[in-house]
Amino acid sequence: MPELPEVETMRRGVAGVAGMRIEHVELVRGRAKPIAVKPSPARFRRRLRGRTIADVGRIGKRVVLHLDDGHAVIFEPRMTGLVLVTDPPNTDHLRVRLQLAGGRRGQPAELLFWDRRGLGVVHVLTAEELAALRDGHLGPDALVISPDELRDRLCKRRRPIKVALLDQAIVAGIGNLYASEILHLCGVHPERSCTSLKKEEWSRLHAAMLQVLELAIRYEGSTLSDGTYRNALNKAGGYQNEHRVYDKAGETCPTCGDSEIVRIVQAQRSTFFCGSCQRAGRKRK
DNA sequence: CATATGTCCTGAGAGC
DNA sequence: TGCTCTCAGGACATAT
Q: How far is the CA of A268 from the C1' of B5 (A)?
């Protein structure tokens, strides 16, 4: 579930490790099987140990530690992963522990990767691999992409707009939850083919995307009913209370106050929308 | 190349 | 109470 707002919240929460040196790398073997790291555990450790963290960044839904030698550590939470600088929700699913030293005030610190379901991964990339990820594998970040580029990258696709928004190679950072919220805010039906959107709808979509993502960041992300997502200090987010459609099938649409929110399945994922605010076929308003 | 589908994983909740 | 079953979805491999 961590999407751009949750990952950006994690990044901000651990940004204080910049300037610190990695003293020890522990791949924790708890009750669960060890997390997937790349390259092999031995080389993973060797690339990290002794290095200084130059900067803490984010690419789409990944947290990035830029190391002083050009390597980059990629934390990819996928469904239930968390990047933390405090105690994790439990010790059973702690996967990686980086022991750090040399902070501004000199205290030791830790950077943890915790993942209940274990679908997440942690990779160390060379500078070349990082460039390939950023400039080849993934599309522009959703917070940075311009309205024109968003339209250019999507408008020829024949897939439904909701499905295309989830494709990280087109635009990076949007996941299942925020895709429904964004389309509801701009009044675009999730099953519309990208090819059918009008120019004015593309600009509404871009504006809604920024509005939803930026507000969600301000609320420090969404913690769903399973309670898994926490920020870097193991605190719940607050944006779940602002959701207008996600996981609200059967409830009254907060925009029109009239129709019920509907749940459909697209590409094996739930989509939520309002049939009267988001009309199929033609634009609204 | 674009698009579609199956797979991984664990714990919560439903149903019997 | 305790068992089995289903489901959640991010990213990628594989198929069409």
A: 9
